[in-house]
Amino acid sequence: MINRDFFFFNARKTLFSGKFKQSQVYGLNAILDEWEKNYYDDDDRWLAYMLATAHHETDRRMQPIEEYGKGKGRPYGTNLKMNRTRYFDTNNIFYGRGFVQLTWYENYEKAGKKLGINLIKNPEKALDLKYATKIMFLGMMEGWFTGKKLSDYLNDNKGDVYNARRIINGTDKASLIADYAFDYYASISYTTS
112, 115, 135, 165: least buried by Cβ within 10 Å? Predict the structure, then answer.
């Protein structure tokens, strides 16, 4: 098990300017719980990079959020699919939601099918802590968003936290998120004393 006392002490100091809000603690615990329950034997760098991604995409809130501006001025902020054809089966708009800012009709459809929920009819479910956590874990591990996945960049032969950003969004803010990942990785310890 991850030493939570050490994790929170170190993360608070290096990533949260010395203090947490209770909602941040809840979000971090949800992510750590999911890791320990289902992915304990996987590469800790994956956990660190997912934490770093959530840190950035939620503006340090560590809670699933709606995209600022709700996609205004972006193609996914209208009723367009990725191929720029219009969809008419719902009035919902598929702007960013959750820990990873899930966008686009097709990504909501895929995530919903994988999780057994209808995210086309109810996209706000991507804001539910349980679903947002699973979308982040499975999406980043399986390459749902861009076809790129954690194991493409963080494996036995490489540790490319800069290009791991391509899992979510090209190399937008890649250096910043890589720095967060290093700080989260330094916070992960399994020691108890």
Answer: 115
Q: Are 99 and 30 in contact (CB under 8 A)?
A: no
Q: How many structural domains is the chain composed of? A: 1
Tell me which amino acid residue 16 is.
F
Record the pTM: 0.95
Q: What letters, b where the CB count within 10 A reaches 16 and e where it falls short, cover 83-109?
A: eeeebeeeebbbbbbbbbbbbbbbbbb
Confirm if 37 and 134 have CB atoms less than 8 A apart.
no
- CB-CB contact of 120 with 112 (8 Å): yes
User: Looking at residue 190, what is its pLDDT?
Assistant: 87
Give yes or no for a contact between 71 and 27, defined as CB atoms under 8 angstroms apart: no
Tell me whether residue 110 is in a domain: yes
Whole domain around residue 182: which residue ranges?
4-187
Instruction: Report CA-CA distances (Å) from 11 to 24, 65, 155.
Output: 11, 21, 24
Q: What 3-state DSSP class applies to 154?
A: strand
Residue among 152, 176, 185 nearest 49 (CA): 185
Residue 163 CB coordination number (10 Å)? 16
Residue 175 belongs to domain with CATH number: 1.10.530.10
